[in-house]
Amino acid sequence: MQQKSLSKWIKVIILVMAICGFLIFTVIFPVIGKDIIEEYPVLSDRFWPWLIFFWALGVSYYITLYFGWKIADNIGEDRSFSHENAIYLKYVSWIEAIDALFIFCVNVIYLVIKLSHPAIALLSLLVVFVAIAISVFFASLSHLVEKAAAMKDENDLTI
User: Is 76 helix (H, G, I), strand (E, B) or coil?
Assistant: First the structure.
């Protein structure tokens, strides 16, 4: 697969993910929340805190998609193994680590102030584990891309 076509496919996937994210964060979560409130009015005090929590996660989701787009641009320009891509991958790693910490802290706080159920808090630990695994994956990928970029720079200097 050519660099340009790979870049275009990555961008198409990112666009689809952006559209799906928009639908999830602006349509599905609020509608499901309103339906739950209509069925269980006692849960109405939990709607806005949880919706704001999901919207905050949406911000980091779109920042991650932005860095993915920048990486796709570099791939299209035949700069797959560049220091710039390594930095972008490191940013994504940090975003995922911050997300994991944010999800954990918010779920603990919501559990303490009775806005959450213990089963939800336990399930969130699985989400935190996955976020940490993704963070470690992108940190490793960043390290490997950085090493490849250094080797490429070294090879470009030889005749």
Answer: helix
